[in-house]
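Curious: can you check?
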Amino acid sequence: MELHPQFRLNGTAYSHNSLLAAAKQWQKSTDSEQKELGLFLEAWLQDQDTITVHTSGSTGVPKPLEVSKAAMKASAEQTAAFFNLSPGNTALLCLPIQYIAGKMMLVRAMVIGFDLDLIAPKTQLDLEGKTYDFAALIPLQASATFELLGDIKKILIGGAPIPAALRKSLAKKHPHCIETYGMTETLTHVATRPVSDPPVPFTAMPNIGIDMDADNCLILTVPYISKTAIRTNDVVELVAERSFRLLGRRDFVINSGGKKIFPEQLEEKLAPFLDTPFFFAGIPDATLGEKLILVLAGNTKEKHAALEIVTQALGADKHHVPKEVVCVEAFVLTKSGKLDRMATLKKVVD
């Protein structure tokens, strides 16, 4: 793959050969991010048409995927066209290179010709007084670095749901932020929406087709990736030819007494009222099939108070009031920092 002549990495210009030599050196580093950088760049600069990436492990064990470099290049070009990005734009990479979002920021920089700064993927970012044209963050970073978001002209936020309180603050003070929908299989974002309060539906990006299967799960047509449709486990409501509301993952749907409950929707409603980390889940029940429970990270003394808060916030529908509140010392997280619901729930059930 050729490098755009305006590509810069941490202020340094590279030829194909000099970047390949640097990549081999970075692989020897004891710093895990620098080592990942070297491994990915060497693979990208080789003659092979494909490259191996890994899913984030949000809903299971991370799995390897063989993807086309041409597809990654096409995705980068689509992003640049959609967000009006140009050669020479300054960009920030503050996400782990191990996962697709970090890899794709590197690809965009090399293909489009960004002047890219790579910094440690910490929760609280230090921009060192610099300003940028473009960056992608996860919600935790957007929250911890809230006061600096005005120093970045275009900000994509994805990788996890935006908490209600953060959404409200972003919509008020940083309306230039864009929420994205995507996954490793789609090489990151294929749909976007402004960060607004209340949230509006996602709209598919140009050339992306959307549909639903019999289980109301989203089906995506991404022509630069696959000739066949990409089936997701995300349950949606189609609101227009190119727009959809995300209801939750099919993996997490709770069927309680014949009523389907989407925990993600309840969590979004409850978030402004409960400070303790929490999530909703379903566990086997002889009468209901599954019963709704609230899982808290913390002390068992908080159970009663939490149930009162939930009842006040969600009690308009009795099915949304949990039958039980349980506590675990700490939630299990994936390597990418996302909540691992299934592993955490095993602590409760076991």
